[in-house]
Write a structure and sequence with these properties.
The complex is a heterodimer.
Chain A (H helix, E strand, L loop, with lengths): L8 E5 L4 E6 L7 E8 L6 E6 L4 E2 L4 E4 L5 E6 L8 E9 L16 E6 L1
Parallel strand pairs in A: 1-9
Antiparallel strand pairs in A: 2-7, 3-4, 3-8, 5-6, 6-7, 8-9
Chain B lengths: L4 E3 L2 E4 L5 E6 L6 E7 L6 E7 L2 E5 L7 E4 L6 E5 L8 E8 L15 E2 L3 E5 L1
Parallel strand pairs in B: 2-11
Antiparallel strand pairs in B: 1-3, 3-8, 4-5, 4-9, 5-6, 7-8, 9-10, 9-11
Chain lengths: 115, 121
């Protein structure tokens, strides 16, 4: 799996937007960009994933650079419940063949949200 | 469906004892994964199943670890002769696989359970 680089930690104020960056310069053409987050004392939670185009869902937006070597997870209005560790993961689509099953997690970015 | 269930939530055991954890995935998911997570680290992949077949095992999974998914539904992870280094959170996740491609893209995300925290004393 392609390696990712994320800041160790970031801080935000409540109700402000948060932009969480991820560098993945060795991404291959068929790799997807996945984001998961882990709240304290819980298992990771799927946030969003994409391939080339920007993606939006009810939780967040994913902005993917044109060369696909970096991406940014955007939380439009941070809340205290968004305080978590955010993981950026590069992997073939999880619905691919039998060898594509696993996601490899790094250390992620610890997001702190201030009231 | 209430998501991925793991049992027990916490387990304290003495070194040298055997422990077994159970995971019940989302019923329509045919892939099931086990991960281990220590404090301050991201989850580390251990093994995964598609239906009842165990398709990949990490080198982290020593001979003392064994996982099964006998009927392609729930799974168990057993650790024999536990060591203090086995203390960690053990996470289970499930997902859809290739043959269910007709599902919307976001449905392929992993759903994790809340984990079993193992403490070996």
């Amino acid at each position: 799996d392609a390696k990712t680089t994320q800041p160790n930690s970031m801080e935000s104020n409540e109700e402000e937007p948060v932009h969480l960056p991820c560098n993945h310069s060795t991404i291959s053409g068929t790799d997807y960009i996945h984001w998961y987050r882990q709240l304290p004392s819980q298992g990771p939670e799927y946030v969003i994933h994409g391939l080339t185009s920007n993606v939006n869902n009810r939780m967040a937006s994913l902005a993917i650079a044109e060369d696909r070597k970096s991406s940014t997870l955007i939380l439009h209005r941070a809340t205290l419940r968004d305080a978590a560790v955010y993981y950026c993961i590069i992997s073939p689509h999880p619905a691919g063949g039998t060898s594509y099953g696993k996601l490899t997690f790094g250390q992620g970015t610890i997001l702190t949200v201030h009231p | 469906d209430t998501g991925v269930s793991q049992d027990p939530r916490h387990k304290i055991t003495k070194r040298g004892q055997n422990v077994t954890f159970r995971c019940d995935p989302i019923s329509e998911h045919n892939r099931l994964y086990w991960y281990r997570q220590t404090l301050g680290q991201g989850p580390e992949f251990l093994t995964y199943f598609q239906n009842e077949a165990q398709l990949e095992k990490s080198r982290l999974l020593s001979d003392r670890f064994s996982a099964e998914r006998p009927k392609g539904s729930f799974s168990t992870l057993e650790i024999q002769r536990t060591e203090q280094g086995d203390s960690a959170m053990y996470l289970c996740a499930s997902s859809l696989a290739a043959r269910q491609r007709e599902a919307p893209l976001h449905n392929y995300g992993y759903t994790f359970g809340s984990g079993t925290r193992l403490t070996v004393v």
